[in-house]
Amino acid sequence: MAVTRMYAFRGCPRSAESLPTIAGMRITSRGHIFHQSRGIHGTGYALCLECGRAEPMLPDDSLPEVFKNPHYKLRRAREDGGAACAGSGTAWKIKQGITLGHEIWTDIFELQIKTEAGIWLHRRRAAMTLAVALRDALAESIGVQATELGCDIKEVRVDNEPARYSILIFDRYAAGYASGAERHLGELFHNARKHLDCPVHCDSACPHCILDFDQRFDADDLDRHAALEVLSDDWLNNLRLPDEYAYFGSSSRIENQHLAEAIWHAVTREGFTSVRLYTDGTPESWDLGTSPLRELAYRLAGQDVSVDIVMPECSIRNLDDADRHLLASLADHPNICLSTIGASHRCGNGWLLAEALGMPAKRWAVDDKAALVFGLLWSRSVGPLITAEQIAATSGKRLVVETLRPQQIDTSDREVEIHHELDGPLQGLGKRFWLHLAEKHAGTNDLLSNKNDEIRLISYRDRYLFTPLSVAILVEVVSGLRDTVGTDRWDVSEVKIITTERRSAGENMAKNKLWSDWPQTTVRDQVLQAAFQYVGLYSLVHIADTSSTGHGRMFEVTWSSGKKLTMRLDQGISYWRTAYNNIRQAGHFDLHNNEIQSQGQSLAELRIDIEGSQLPTQLFLKVR
Ligand SMILES: [Zn+2]
Ligand SMILES: [Zn+2]
User: Fold this and answer.
1) With contact defined as beta carbons under 8 Å apart, do 240 and 18 qualify?
2) How remote is the CA of residue 150 from the centroid of ligand 2, in Å?
3) Centroid of ligand 2 to alpha carbon of 196 (angstroms)
4) The CATH fold of domain 3-37+103-239
5) ipTM of the complex
6) Ligand 1 center to 6 CA (angstroms)
């Protein structure tokens, strides 16, 4: 049958990171395949509009036999009896020469190959043969019948370059297999090559090597020798990981996903039920509250996966109270445990980052030890993420949570967890914040309600204070405190803000949003002061470097009685974000407006709903 397929992609093309010079690929799960058919004779179909019956036109463009006489309806209802279709006698109801099509949305894996000679694959027979061999190899890797997958080729032109062929492998039943191709790239070509090596040494193609059950291509179109020229030994050798990246020996391969995705895949698709996450670095370099490790651990634990967070022994000894609280509350989850090891595991030139335990285990490693630091950038590295299936490392020493939880010197100290309790309009957040804390912490309540105690000094220390939203929240929290105690008990000459000049790493790429960074931090400083000034407060921004700001986020209130309320926030005021229910435009903020005063005013008056993040934030309060 003359079937034409047309393909359309949604989503961006990208090159395979692991195949930088020899191939390009893209994968979509919203691929659009349009099957179009002009009937066995290529002259189209005759179609009855009344009942939907369609028959191929004859080679001479004449009406098929069925329609030359009265025909039965396509679907005959019992009550119709033997009656002919009403369309039979009416010429205009029988449309002639129709091209039929049907379309499906499915996964498509598109691959372009550059040959050893450095030119894109342009030979049709080689392309078709490779399509069949790669399809068969992929089915084998995934563990499904080859009939689940279809393959095809497509001629493409990029700019003014000569035409080349894309190889397409797609799901025949939209089962989502083709999008998994990326995971098997490492072995795909080697396995395809095996399919091309015919055990009976046939001339071009035979059922022993590449049989296209699909009949998509004529047997004459297939030529394993043409395909073998492309998948030559040298070409395949180019695919091998350079030795320096073979952290796990010869079975090492590049992990094409981010670590969290890869682990998630192992857990949800491959049945792993136990995961180890490795950390390193000194507590001063840690930032537990914002670390993606924490979120990943909770997410996995929520799926009933047991999670072991492995830390260096020496770091545990030097933890401050806030970190002890955070770790202890992580380990309060029945599926999360903590353990320690003497030193991080080396794997070849790399560092062990995570393991999914099993026989064998799935392991991941990176080139840079800094990626193990238990902070915001955990698992991030410039070098590739390398994975392999191997025996897991021996387990570390299990930490008993109760030894970790800080001994409270003063029983009045309090750890307060906030999740969605304060969600709502930004205006009023400050008052809600202090009322909530007063409810949870007797020490705070005493200070706030003592009519004879005045507030003298306020300071807030936070390394990450870069976005208009953080500034707006800070102004709310400080002015909310003033509203709570009343101006009579407010004797604050200046609000001291200690922060840094720029993010230590990780650019914030958002543009002109409440959650973007100001292009220059000097503008941030001025707008912050203008916003405080607008609500009648004088503030002073003190810029420090990351080491002297410390890794904690601290809000301190000093009272006329000499008492000091110290509040440590694990994620700082940046914990709150714009709520999902805001209209889209609500997130807009013009960072390039040079009117400092008007930027400050609009932040102080900002009307927007805010909400807590996915995980709760923890505050540690004490009064001394
Ligand atoms: Zn009909
Ligand atoms: Zn053969």
Assistant:
1) no
2) 20
3) 8
4) Gyrase A; domain 2 (3.30.1360)
5) 0.59
6) 30
